[in-house]
Design brief:
CATH architecture: 3-Layer(aba) Sandwich
Largest sheet: 5 strands, parallel
Strand content: 15-25%
Number of domains: 1
Order of helices and strands: EHEHEHHEHEH
CATH class: Alpha Beta
CATH topology: Rossmann fold
Strand order of the largest sheet: 2-1-3-4-5
Length: about 130
């Protein structure tokens, strides 16, 4: 499994990477502190480079998570069924969950921090959606 992390906070990327490794969640982790770089990566990804899972932070400067999702809309058909986005946020706002439903690639909104049970549920969801 290939996972992409998008978060402007280096410490969050570091901690999330450690959890993913500890839980043997993924084979490959690609991380981006700038959403635009992640968008460029996805736009230019070869079919075997498309991640299975993207963990996306919402609150980032310049391009926030919602802006990233809007910019990703032209790629929805190409990524559908192959890439699931999980919004990883510290926000408890119910409006975030409602807004996330507007994006077909968003599988769920998850409160930080990630942990073993959350990752197990995501793994199960991703594997079931691919079979």
């Amino acid at each position: 499994m290939h996972t992409v992390l998008i978060d402007d906070d280096y410490i969050s990327i570091f901690l999330t990477t450690r959890i993913l490794q500890r839980e043997n969640f993924t084979d490959t982790i690609t991380s981006f502190q700038l959403p635009q770089e992640a968008l460029d990566y996805l736009q230019n990804a070869l079919p075997n480079q498309v991640p299975d899972v993207v963990f996306l932070d919402l609150n980032m400067p310049i391009m926030n998570g919602w802006d990233f999702l809007d910019a990703l809309r032209p790629l929805e058909a190409q990524l559908a069924g192959r890439c699931s986005i999980y919004i990883l946020t510290s926000s408890l706002a119910p409006s975030d969950k409602l807004k996330a439903e507007e994006y077909s690639l968003v599988a769920s909104v998850i409160n930080k921090p990630l942990d073993g049970p959350k990752l197990q549920a995501i793994r199960t969801q991703v594997l079931e959606s691919r079979s």
